[in-house]
Amino acid sequence: MNGVLGSWTCISQCGACCRLCPEERGEALEALSEDQRREYLSMVGPDGWCINYDSGGRRCRIYETRPDFCRVQQLGGLFHVSDSDLEEFAVSCCRQQIRSVYGGRSRVLRRFDRALRRSTPGDD
Question: How far apart, in whole angstroms, are the C-alpha atoms of residue 20 and residue 47?
Answer without folding.
Answer: 9
